[in-house]
Request: fold
Amino acid sequence: MERLDVADGFDVHEYRHGLKLRKQGAETMHLENREGFGCPACGREFGKLFVSSRRHNTFDSPPGPFCLTRTDDRVLLLTH
Reply:
């Protein structure tokens, strides 16, 4: 299973073949994992990915376990 590589930031275009865009705003994206990519935090397959370049984000509790990963300019929330 290929794990998302965020060592040098996160470029969604590197993974477009397996991530389906569900919703996009000016500073956020909601994506679905269709290729079985692994989470950059724990290595397990994740279901959905929220990417934000906003400094502040508020979330309702995501169902089930989740992981957070931070790059220099983005926060990634991955639900399992």
Q: What stands out?
A: The mean pLDDT is 93.
